[in-house]
Write a sequence for this structure.
């Protein structure tokens, strides 16, 4: 039903929606408000939607989202001949489980591209410049958020730096190295990563 079709849990409602990238119409299964999609502030890459459960962290400067592993590519082809030609099951299905692929739902849905840094210093050089870019945008467009962003984002960066080896880094679909990087780490015992986003580096769009 589409790359972004998810069960909406943020905001206390449950419905199914798609983003602008969808090419087919999906009927909502319940009455609900418009869906929120969060784009990269500078590139417009779609990075997140409120189909996922968003939790505020670092005094409201960050969003934290837990992902899930999903299976893609599993196909059972019914050729309508039972076992006449062998290799199928009793119902005539041909198992194509070899094509299955385990993927992270958020990475797959928003086409993230994994990237990285050679060392912590390289990351800190990038993030210092990026934070100044966001700060300048806030000063021009939303000055009340400057202090909140700088305080919370600084704490978030310190946390990432202190645990640098535990983090993976992703770019949006445009692969712009100067844009917002999505951070990911594994909580203890988790099978899929938790993602971190800078709230003020996202632009909310309603569909």
């Amino acid at each position: 039903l589409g790359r972004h079709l998810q069960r909406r849990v943020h905001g206390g409602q449950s419905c199914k929606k798609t983003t602008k990238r969808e090419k087919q119409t999906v009927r909502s299964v319940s009455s609900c408000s418009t869906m929120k999609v969060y784009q990269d502030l500078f590139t417009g890459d779609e990075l997140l939607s409120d189909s996922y459960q968003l939790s505020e962290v670092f005094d409201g400067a960050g969003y934290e989202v837990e992902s899930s592993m999903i299976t893609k590519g599993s196909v059972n082809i019914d050729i309508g001949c039972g076992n006449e030609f062998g290799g199928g099951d009793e119902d005539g299905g041909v198992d194509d489980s070899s094509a299955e692929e385990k993927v992270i739902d958020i990475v797959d849905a928003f086409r993230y591209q994994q990237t990285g840094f050679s060392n912590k210093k390289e990351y800190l050089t990038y993030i210092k410049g990026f934070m100044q870019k966001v700060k300048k945008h806030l000063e021009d467009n939303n000055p009340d958020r400057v202090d909140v962003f700088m305080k919370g984002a600084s704490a978030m960066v310190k946390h990432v730096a202190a645990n640098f080896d535990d983090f993976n880094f992703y770019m949006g679909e445009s692969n712009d190295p100067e844009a917002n990087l999505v951070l990911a780490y594994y909580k203890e015992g988790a099978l899929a990563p938790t993602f971190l986003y800078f709230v003020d580096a996202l632009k909310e769009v309603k569909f």
Summary: Residues 40 and 95 are 40 Å apart (CA to CA). Helices lie at 105-110, 120-141, 146-162. Confidence is low (pLDDT under 50) at residues 1-18, 20-31.
